[in-house]
Amino acid sequence: MAGSLTFALRRLLLAVPVLLGVVFIVMLTLELVPGDAVAMMLGEHATKAAVDRLREHLGLDKPLLVRYAQYVGQLARGDLGRSIIQNRPVVDELADTWPATLELTVAALLIAALVGVPAGVVSAVRPNSSFDALARLGSLFGLSMPVFWTGLVLIVLFSLWLPWLPVGGRGSLAHLVLPAVALALPSIAMLARLTRSSVLEVLHEDYVRTARAKGLQELAVVVKHGLRNALLPIVTLVGIQAGQLMGGAVLTETVFAWPGLGRLMVKAIFARDYVLLQGAVLVFALAFVLVNLLVDLSYGLLDPRISRQG
Amino acid sequence: MSADAARRFGRNRLALLGLALVAGLVLVAAAAPLLAPQDPVKQSLFEKRARPDAKHLLGADEFGRDILSRVIYGTRVALLVGTLAAAIAVVAGGALGCVAGFAGGWLDATIMRGIEILLAFPYLLLAIAIVSALGPGVVNTTIAVGVWGTPTVARMVRASVLALKETEYVRAARALGAGGPALVLRHILPNVLPTLCVYATLFMANAVLVEAALSFLGLGVQPPTPSWGLMVSTGRDVLLVAPHVATMPGLAIVVSVLGFNLLGDGLRDALDPRLRGA
Questions:
Q1: Was domain A91-309 assigned CATH 3.40.50.300?
Q2: Residues 6 or more apart in contact with residue A301 via CB below 8 angstroms
Q3: Of B176, B155, B153, which is closest to residue B89 (Cα–Cα)?
Q4: What is the reported pTM?
Q5: How far apart are the first and last CA of chain B?
């Protein structure tokens, strides 16, 4: 266990320069904004003196590298600055919204895993059956439907025509159903496809034939020998899907008025609140890096042959 | 494509369906003025939110504009942004990947650290960050989608170059005195091309989705240009009274993304049968 702890710590330290790079890229892109961002914030009737005062107040009169160094210094103390529009600490705004996004993405990831993986396994066990054909067709559509559109279609179906579920907002479990399902659909499709192909591949292995020859029940063969050995690529994909889900959350949160980080980010963009935007992007990137770290750590548990000297 | 690969492609019914869908899209985009029953930007207050009927096969939107005509013209925007973005991603990513893989050393390390940072942005967020800085519009959306696709291409090309660098024929060419650029352009790149083609086709599917998503958020293509994502977004405001305004344009997105996905899968299976179903 000590080994995996050092591994985790080392990977966590390696993530620091990546996240600092993310901050730099965001600041750099905002630097490239054509026109005067501060003047746009104040509107066309602002005087030059007012624009200069605000620029100085926001620290935007200093060169990019100086601002970057300052921001990183603040970051080290856990300070992400104050949002321009609300004049509240960005940390507070993020703290208000991230639980909602976590709830939504975790729910979607659970749905994706609980539907996608079993569907893929059944497809692999009965290839070219009618279930397999249906599942593959479903996956193709799942991958091709934009989540914001699926969300709206679900609202029409289950809030308008069949008034079963709320149109939007957050609160009860009923509020969570539609956004989580809309967000999960592409991931269900990806997982079902990958699970099918990797289980199909494993089921041709000699040890599976041996297990069958020993007289093991088919279910045990499929789960213990098939799925267990096909898990590695599946878990990797779950990690990648976490990133997809976070990006998709920006869209589903907008569709369902879900009070999360994604909606906050879109609001920040329209309000030209770059301090808030930086903070939101940083939290998303941090979460993505952490999920991938968890995925890497799970390799050792899933396959003891994989050493942790990475 | 070799005759062998072409035969495999021809036997794959889904791949042919994908090809037909993509060819259909190109045709619709090219012949939009001939196919569209009405002017895509003509407003008519009397026909505001008209339900689908004989005059408006897919209904009319908030401003009484014919949705079918707008969907047809929207094909141009989707294909234009998708193709140019794919070109940006393939050229920029290809160049970066070739240089990193071939040069090695500090140059490789620097490029790859940069790529890693870009890949730390979850999915859509890099495109959102870029377009929010550049501002909305067709050109900026294209740039954002292209840059968004670049790191993945670069990483893939680098891996192929690293593998090819050690093959015997590349070593032989090197022994015969072929220098860096010639080696890359004449011996390595042609072997990466099939993979790049497959990737570019599958990327088109993603590019259409990302363009639609950016436009849906109001960050991408701006009104009155008919973009599918934008049309869904406008329809959202009247979703509960006129659901067809938002849902119909979305079907166009589904069909085109499906087409590019099927075509890309088919090309991959045809060019590299070992990857079948992967």
A1: no
A2: none
A3: B153
A4: 0.89
A5: 20
- How many Cα neighbours within 13 Å face the side chain of B232? 33
Radius of gyration of chain B from its Cα atoms, rounded to whole angstroms: 22
With contacts defined as CB-CB under 8 Å, which chain B residues touch A34? 134-135
Residues A189-240 pLDDT 10s: 999 999 998 888 888 888 888 888 888 888 888 888 888 888 888 888 888 8
Tell me the per-residue pLDDT of A134-162, one tens digit each, with 9 for 90 and over.
999 999 999 999 999 999 999 999 998 99
Q: Which residues pair with A89 in a beta bridge?
A: A82
Per the model's pLDDT, the better-predicted residue between B254 and A304 turns out to be B254
Q: Phi first, then psi: what are they for B228, rounded to 5°?
A: -60, -45
Q: B129 at the A interface (CB within 8 A)?
A: yes
Q: With contact defined as beta carbons under 8 Å apart, do B167 and B175 qualify?
A: no
Cβ contact A29–B130 (<8 Å): yes
Which of A148, A252, A256, A263 to probe by mutation at the B interface, max B CB count within 10 Å? Answer: A148
CA separation, residue A115 to residues A140, A158, A231, A244, A292 (Å): 15, 20, 15, 17, 22
What Å distances lie between residue B255 and A56, A68, A160, A260, B209, CA to CA? 51, 44, 25, 31, 11
Helices and strands (DSSP H and E) totals, chain A: 13, 0
What Å distances lie between residue B103 and B42, B51, B83, B89, B176, CA to CA?
A: 56, 61, 29, 20, 19
CA separation, residue B52 to residues A5, A156, B63 (Å):
62, 16, 15
- pLDDT interval class at A310 (50, 70, 90): very low
Asked whether the predicted pLDDT for residue B278 surpasses 50, the reply is: no
Question: What does the domain layout of chain B look like in residue ranges?
Answer: 22-31+58-275
Mutate to test the interface with B, among A30, A128, A144, A278 (most CBs of B within 10 A): A144
% of residues, chain B, pLDDT over 70? 97
> Hunting for tokens 């990806």 — which residue is that?
A190
ipTM of the assembly? Answer: 0.88
Strand partners, A82: A89
- Interface contact B262, partner A, CB < 8 A: yes
The whole-angstrom separation of Cα B153 and Cα A18 is 19
The reply to whether residue B213 touches residue A251, judged by beta carbons under 8 angstroms, is yes
Number of neighbours of residue A41 by Cβ within 10 angstroms: 18
CATH architecture of the domain covering B22-31+58-275: Orthogonal Bundle (1.10)
- Is B261's CB within 8 Å of A148's CB? no
Question: Measured between alpha carbons, how far is A220 from A218 in angstroms, rounded to an integer?
Answer: 5
